[in-house]
Amino acid sequence: MLVIDGNSRSNGNTQTLLHILLDNIPHEYISLRDKVVHPIIDARHTDEGFQPIKDDYQSIIKNVLENDMIILSTPIYWYGMSGLMKNFIDRWSQSMRDPSLNFKQGMYKKKMYVVTVGGDEPKTKGLPLIMQFQYIFDFVGASFEGYILGKGNKPGDILQDKKAINIAKFYNQAFLQTLC
Amino acid sequence: MLVIDGNSRSNGNTQTLLHILLDNIPHEYISLRDKVVHPIIDARHTDEGFQPIKDDYQSIIKNVLENDMIILSTPIYWYGMSGLMKNFIDRWSQSMRDPSLNFKQGMYKKKMYVVTVGGDEPKTKGLPLIMQFQYIFDFVGASFEGYILGKGNKPGDILQDKKAINIAKFYNQAFLQTLC
Amino acid sequence: MLVIDGNSRSNGNTQTLLHILLDNIPHEYISLRDKVVHPIIDARHTDEGFQPIKDDYQSIIKNVLENDMIILSTPIYWYGMSGLMKNFIDRWSQSMRDPSLNFKQGMYKKKMYVVTVGGDEPKTKGLPLIMQFQYIFDFVGASFEGYILGKGNKPGDILQDKKAINIAKFYNQAFLQTLC
Amino acid sequence: MLVIDGNSRSNGNTQTLLHILLDNIPHEYISLRDKVVHPIIDARHTDEGFQPIKDDYQSIIKNVLENDMIILSTPIYWYGMSGLMKNFIDRWSQSMRDPSLNFKQGMYKKKMYVVTVGGDEPKTKGLPLIMQFQYIFDFVGASFEGYILGKGNKPGDILQDKKAINIAKFYNQAFLQTLC
User: Fold this and answer.
1) CB contact under 8 A, C39 and D8
2) What residue stretches are annotated with the NADPH-dependent FMN reductase-like domain (chains A, B, C, D) (predicted)?
3) Nearest C-alpha in B relative to A43
4) What is the mean pLDDT of residues A99-123?
5) Which residues are CB-contacts of D135 (< 8 A; sequence separation ≥ 6)?
6) Domains plus CATH for chain A?
7) Which of A121, A144, A170 is the closest to C124 by Cβ?
8) What digits encode the pLDDT tens for the residues B103-151?
9) How far is it, in rounded angstroms, from Cα C25 to Cα C37?
10) Is the dihedral of CA D93, D97, D100, D104 positive or negative?
């Protein structure tokens, strides 16, 4: 299990959800705010094609491909994923054309989870974001196994969202059973 | 009229739509790929608050505030706006807390347009993105005046999307009448 | 608590969820398939206005207005609520103009829940339906307190959707605590 | 070309759009408010299966199957299609299991259009409805060729929605060219 965290601060509400979700679950954790991932330069239709970019993207995506279960964790910023996460996802277009990766085959049937927390009516205004993740995972043939939409603004708020906490515990139990 | 362009390549399909839309319309144009706009560091709940960041964001947002009509132009990347555009929008959270800007008052009733082109069924799979823009504009009290969802992948494709071209021409006429 | 059930068969999956959700909770239950609710005849802009219609709608809506918590239960048919439920909701337009009801004031801050089960990827393809309910409740000033999106096709399928069952149990506990 | 009209009043705004859209285009027209189409009784999982229902549905659906291009026209009521239209669509579940119809094969690659008008921010709050139509058409393998989302409440309002009028004219031209 690998967590890709698109939060731009530590100890946020998404983090709290992740702790509950991953209690006793062995996992790797990558925080995008500690990495450099440049916005994509769209070279799909240039003669040269994509050029190697010197940042941390390639090592992160290799890590993704080596794991069967991926949790994408992002705050809801302006009703979408964070720019940190979006830059990361946008670069998948580059990986799609990278013969060294076999990206689409590698993503096929991978189990994807999304954990996201927002302040403004996330349980409905966060739904376009969930739809986007569904389209994203469909495009690469991955399986969207589940999501947690939590409500919170100030650090700690999420603890008041008992439904989100409950779902995190539920998935935690499901993960534990998978491990046995 | 000010165009904020979140494309990561020049001469793309969105560009073609913009040319039709803006034919004979005086406007300013900012390409985010020629600017540096860092991802937000969320400091809303820290003691220090947001710190000034040395990049081009502040001058761009001042330009936005000085214009009555804003066109946000972005390719549909992975069913959302480009990371370049998302980084720009995410920074609005910083502007919301910047007493020198009067951001929310400045955005109130501003006329917003979105021009976006995607390759995979944009007229329906692009709808979550349109919803997000609606939520974004609602949040700051701006008015979502219209959008063009075009279909295209390779440069030039958009010319086959006669409906999108038609809508671009329609708005162009409407803009021209506003100017008279 | 009042349940309005838009299912067209008994013992379906939505019913199973409702049983878990309402265990030990006193409630009234109205099945729309046992009632007659005609499609609306839109008379908002006629000289005569809406005319009284001889069916069960008026008594049902009065019952709604007398309860603080309303559960709308519908299968997901063709990615939307059932026609039975839609006919019922459409008639709210008539109630909006019925001076004997004070409809909008009566709906204000009412607590609304939605329980819905579908067969084809309900957790994402059911999201447009959830958005519609949000818009509906917003329009009348009611509060969308929560929803359960379950997966099931054949009767009994829902028992395999452990997450939906879990959320139903969670709300059941929350309801029980409200009663104490 | 066949129009299925789910409006519950005549001379509404959707009607006005249809007149522009179909100017000089030979077509058949069925108004659901002049027909009887009962809500579905879900018998997918009963021993007996679906029983024949005495209403106008079967003749309408046969007409649909005989046409290559179908326009579904509905007001936006409460952010969804009208109950009249929903009852009609729900019955497709019955047709799916009707061996006399070959329904899914008959719907395959059929060209579908949606014309819909609403009063409350239809260009964004009508988008969940458009998504539902996309899912519906995808399910039966039909092709969602285009849609018009118009704004209007009182009869005649739609004439103020110059963009919708423009799109209707655009499709009209496209239809005329198809006929030549």
Assistant:
1) yes
2) 2-120
3) B9
4) 95
5) C78, C79, C120, C125, C128
6) 2-179 (3.40.50.360)
7) A144
8) 999 999 999 999 999 999 999 999 999 999 999 999 999 999 999 999 9
9) 27
10) positive
